TrEMBL record:
Keywords: Transferase
Single Gene Ontology MF annotation: acyltransferase activity, acyl groups converted into alkyl on transfer
InterPro entries: Citrate_synth-like_sm_a-sub, Citrate_synthase, Citrate_synthase_AS, Citrate_synthase_sf
Protein's organism: Rhizopogon vinicolor AM-OR11-026
SUPFAM superfamilies linked: Citrate synthase (SSF48256)
Signal peptide annotation: none
GO cellular component, one term: mitochondrial matrix
The organism's place on the tree of life at top rank: Eukaryota
Family: Belongs to the citrate synthase family.
GO BP annotation list: carbohydrate metabolic process; tricarboxylic acid cycle
Protein name, UniProt field: Citrate synthase
Amino acid sequence: VWSTLKSGQVVPGYGHAVLRKTDPRYTAQREFALKHLPDNPLFKLVGQIYNIVPGILLEAGKAKNPWPNVDAHSGVLLTHYGLHQMQFYTVLFGVSRAFGVASQLIWDRALGAPLERPKSYSSEAIQKMFKDRS
């Protein structure tokens, strides 16, 4: 962990852009694993890492949030259930986001919610906004 930090890299699976505590998705996955695969060697390793890494990150002053995020645990479950190709993990994340957007669209249409039209700016308008601020 120290060599990763000293090389200027982050520790994968730790920290979150918004949360300042353990990611609840990590907690849910951990509870699931405790119940369904308590003897899995990778699960045990993730547990040991959880006991070590936050303290190191705090000591190093490298993280506003030294606690694990969902990525610290999801690989254990995906591997346990047969998905060994790590390059597909990001694809699964993207697909899950797409399902979320699609389900929200279905609810919006079912409930008759108005269409959302976020503002769009041209590159020139964005440049002007920043020039006006300086």
